[in-house]
Here is the input.
Amino acid sequence: MSETPQAATSTPESQAQTRIGRRFAELRRAGELGLVAYITAGDPSLAATREIVLAAADAGADVIELGVPFSDPVADGPVIQRASERALRAGTTLAAVIDLVADLRRSTEVPLVLFSYFYPILQIGLGDFALRTAQVGADGVLATDLTPEEATEYRQVLRAAGLDTIFLAAPTTPDERLARIAAVSSGFLYLISRTGVTGQRDQLPEDLTALVSRVRRSTALPLAVGFGLSQPEHLRALVGKVEAAVVGSALVSEIERAESGAAAAQAVAARIRSLKSGSHGR
Amino acid sequence: MSAAAKNLPDERGRFGPYGGRYVPETLMAPLEELERGYAAARIDAAFAQRLDDLLHNFAGRPTPLQFAERLTAHLGGPRIYLKREDLLHTGAHKINNCLGQGLLAERMGKRRIIAETGAGQHGVATATVAARLGLECVVYMGTEDMERQRLNVFRMRLLGAEVVGVDAGSRTLKDAISEAMRDWVTNVRSTHYLLGSVLGPHPYPAMVRDFHKVIGIEAREQILRAEGRLPDLLVACVGGGSNAIGLFHAFIGDESVRMLGVEAGGRGHGLGEHAARLAAAAGYAGARPGVLHGTYTYILQTPEGQIATTHSVSAGLDYAAVGPEHAWLAKERRAEYTAVDDDAAVDAARTLARIEGIIPALESAHSLAELIRRAPQMSLDQVVIANVSGRGDKDMDILARYL
Here is the structure.
């Protein structure tokens, strides 16, 4: 990749410019914890994903992460692994997920983040990927296995296209790396709550508060905490501490259990309403 | 190839464009810790002494460089020498790396070791070293491979390791690596991931190579002693590519020495039929650069960028990606890569058994098959070293079908 697309009309450093930044500003004014909903795109079909995303947005999801299925998802637990396999069996590709975003944008203004392993992005090519993703109205991208060290060009190209680049921070991340991660992130910073893969847990980790305050010292970006969150009380415990909670496997499990795409959309919406009941802290 | 080439990878773990470190953030700190721990061990004389002692007295180094007198006469070509890594404890070169990383884990205070295994050779070597050093050991293995290599499952359990079946994806090596990475991401603070080939995120490709360099260092001294000159050609099989890098590395600066890596041609040239990532010139489809298990290298993949399924009669070569240093040696044309099919590998195993009294692993038989094919076109005064990376006991079920 030698040239950088000149599509930037926004000033990428100012987070209020994207739908993600605007939504976090609204949440801050309302004193509300945001809910970031992860859904594997194409599970069980892209048509079903469309209905599920619209229902989730309607039920109050503040940001939706569309997971791009990958054959070897090393960061994911069994629930999202199975969802990826179902989506791949249905023939889901990254190109088709980008088309789905275009379709969704005709019906909703909910902030949309593509959540992918780096490999499929690389296959499309960074420049083409960034242009198409921005053109169809996605707001940000998170590449699970891409850290700041390997992301110099990725970040330049995506930011020039007006996309937020969301990076992960983990409990194992030392302070000097936290600063480096914060410096390349925009939109929000995704804080992994515990060492391990994605999947539901009964309780929040005990050291989460200390981790959050450590990350706070490195960044003014909104923090979204994920991995293991599934219950309204998990969200309630985060109100006033971070800006958002990410829920993934709990929603994907609802989709796995549902007997049809319509039933999945209903179940996800109900789960989101229940989770959101915890987001005001009362 | 410049002299600087021998000092790769660079500080970012790159061999030219290949290599690097593509992992979830949770693994970055442990990889940096491993890099620091390895750098400290490399300059620690006590570490080197302990490793040398175990390689010598436990594993059985140095291994012979045997003149294959009858095979040489049979083929009527170059003088053929066999580097007998099959004679090492546990039956393959894998123990070199396992001893190195096992000692490193111990030095870094990690009392729990995890590993992936395909054919089971790396799993057995890891379980062996864990037992020797008194470390807890968990080995991930695809359920398909557990079925194919049952004997090695029993060996690992006898050695005190826990063998965990992986029932995801293709249920082979690729899925075992993914599951081992998931374990590591969960237990990073207590656990060392003892990766078994020159694959994965930096520093693994360089570190695993370093622990296997002893193969080429010995072979270079041995051939100079036996022939008074360097060989014309080195031949080794390439799955991830650890035995090949181990043999090649001491010769990289010797421009007169040609190096040949032999991949698995499986049962055909189409995607899904083989595991040839660098042998595109030989007509094998589907390999392009991409990222798998933490490294940027040549990978067999679908047009959409999903990892393709692979096939080989030899489980140890049955993997979609190749070590990044091999990708770079191919790009620089310092080494040549080709592939031979299942049947040719089995034939070569039979030939070596009958003519030299050595039953090679089916992995190693791939390199011998290519040597058998080429030898008649080489001249009588040329010298070749072939790496017999492992012994074939584990493959008896498969070989028996061809008797």
